[in-house]
Amino acid sequence: MYLSVKDVKPLDGYKLLLIFENEEKRVFDVSPYLNIGKFSELKDPSLFNTVKVKFDSIEWSNSLDLDPELLYQESVKLNNKLHTSSESS
User: Fold this and answer.
1) pLDDT in tens, 31-46
2) The domain defined by 5-77 carries CATH number 3.30.2020.10
């Protein structure tokens, strides 16, 4: 069983802020995929920023998508790392 993507927001550095159906916020780094086939098109920031939720996952305007299981497994749970440049604990 996998969790569906409920919302997506493109971030700097080819990262995506994902909100899953359980309300968990996670960050997925797309950059490792940017040299694989058609994913290289996403190096264009205007195309990268077209990402949207489609069914239970995400899709770009060039019809590329990623599996929601992969998005969840390969993403990192958000712990305010995007809002601060220094570590504080």
Assistant:
1) 999 999 999 999 999 9
2) yes
